């Protein structure tokens, strides 16, 4: 087929996905990602010289300290979290055939945050690594919330996209109330840490923790990529996908668990950072088309770039005063959501 990777989900007038195009797009996005990392590492309230950081004396090298021990772990974490949230958002939009589906809006991030907060409070003083306890609690909270939303959004055996979205909004408010309750009964120091964590932050992370979360994310993302063809078929509807031989229920189970894992891993280290999973998959779809075999990896790369740039703005805009990165993404995502809501309001999406 001359290297063609044909897909029935391609839109009229849109080129089929080929091996050459697949490699060219991912190579270009990788270059953009590397450039983003380089530029972001040099920007901040304190100017850093890359030459002095890499070639200067090991002792009293302030540039190396800022670049290698403060900014670079933070940037790498931004790449991981942005990629995880973007992949989860793209998968949810495919499964629910709802362009407004996104982990934060649907309450999945809220459920993950609730699980993480409970793990933080219960695990105080316990001989358990934060890198394992909090992600476990966040994953459990995300999975439980996803199951509740899916059950509420299923009417007579069929998923109703907008019913499911409304159920997610309600669950988001409910989990928010429970988080405030847990925060109220926690001690002062725990409550302060929980509040700052919930606003969304990529600060104060180690390479070891970033590596652990990256391993979680890669495993979950790989499971989604293995089902990319099934996601393409699901764009035709449940009946159309079944006629093409797709086990719809199995695909949904795998994708829901993988998405919960991605959201839980992201929330456990960064708190609630919203709208990344809404903005990035839509932009990626506009740039490169709807084929999920390209959309998923491209969304992960672009999501990492987006969150790193948002975090760079958050820590640079007001000098020494740092804005939570969740505030920056919300300021970008709120108007974008309203635009999509208005655009899709007149369409009948089933």
Give the topology.
Elements: E1 4-5, E2 17-18, H1 19-42, H2 50-55, H3 62-96, H4 108-122, H5 130-152, E3 154-155, E4 158-159, H6 161-185, H7 188-198, H8 207-225, H9 228-234, H10 238-243, H11 248-270, H12 276-288, H13 292-316, H14 325-344
Antiparallel strand pairs: 1-2, 3-4
What are its keywords?
two-stranded antiparallel sheet, mainly alpha, single chain, 350 residues
Describe the 3D structure.
- The protein is an all-alpha fold and 350 residues long.
- 72% of the residues lie in helices and 2% in strands.
- Strands 1-2 form a two-stranded antiparallel ribbon. A two-stranded antiparallel sheet has the order 3-4.
- A hairpin with a 2-residue loop joins β3 and β4 (158-159).
- The radius of gyration is 20 Å and the shape is globular.
- It starts with a strand and ends in a 6-residue tail after the last helix.
């Amino acid at each position: 087929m001359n290297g063609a990777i044909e897909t029935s989900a391609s839109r009229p007038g849109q080129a089929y996905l080929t091996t050459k195009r697949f490699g060219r797009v991912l190579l270009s996005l990788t270059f953009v990602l590397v450039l983003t990392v380089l530029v972001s590492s040099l920007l901040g309230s304190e100017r850093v010289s890359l030459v002095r950081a890499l070639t200067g004396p090991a002792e009293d090298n302030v540039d190396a300290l800022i670049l290698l021990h403060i900014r670079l772990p933070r940037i790498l974490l931004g790449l991981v979290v942005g990629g995880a949230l973007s992949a989860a958002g793209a998968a949810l939009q495919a499964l629910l055939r709802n362009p407004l589906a996104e982990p934060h809006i649907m309450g999945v991030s809220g459920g993950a945050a609730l699980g993480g907060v409970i793990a933080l409070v219960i695990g105080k003083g316990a001989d358990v690594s934060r890198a394992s306890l909090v992600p476990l609690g966040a994953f459990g909270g995300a999975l439980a919330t996803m199951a509740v939303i899916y059950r509420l959004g299923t009417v007579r055996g069929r998923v109703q996209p907008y019913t499911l979205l409304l159920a997610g909004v309600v669950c988001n408010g409910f989990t928010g109330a429970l988080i405030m309750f847990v925060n109220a009964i926690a001690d002062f120091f725990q409550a302060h840490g929980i509040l700052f964590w919930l606003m969304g932050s990529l600060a104060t992370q180690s390479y070891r923790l970033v590596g652990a979360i990256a391993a979680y994310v890669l495993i979950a993302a790989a499971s989604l990529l293995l089902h990319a063809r099934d996601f393409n078929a699901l764009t035709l509807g449940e009946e159309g996908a079944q006629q093409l031989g797709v086990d719809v229920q199995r695909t949904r189970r795998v994708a829901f668990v993988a998405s919960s894992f991605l959201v839980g891993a992201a929330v456990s280290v960064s708190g609630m950072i919203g709208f990344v999973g809404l903005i990035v998959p839509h932009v990626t779809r506009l740039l490169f088309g709807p084929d999920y075999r390209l959309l998923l990896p491209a969304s992960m790369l672009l999501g990492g770039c987006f969150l790193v740039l948002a975090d760079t703005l958050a820590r640079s805009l007001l000098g020494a005063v740092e804005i939570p990165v969740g505030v920056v993404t919300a300021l970008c995502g709120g108007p974008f959501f309203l635009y999509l809501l208005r655009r899709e309001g007149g369409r009948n999406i089933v």
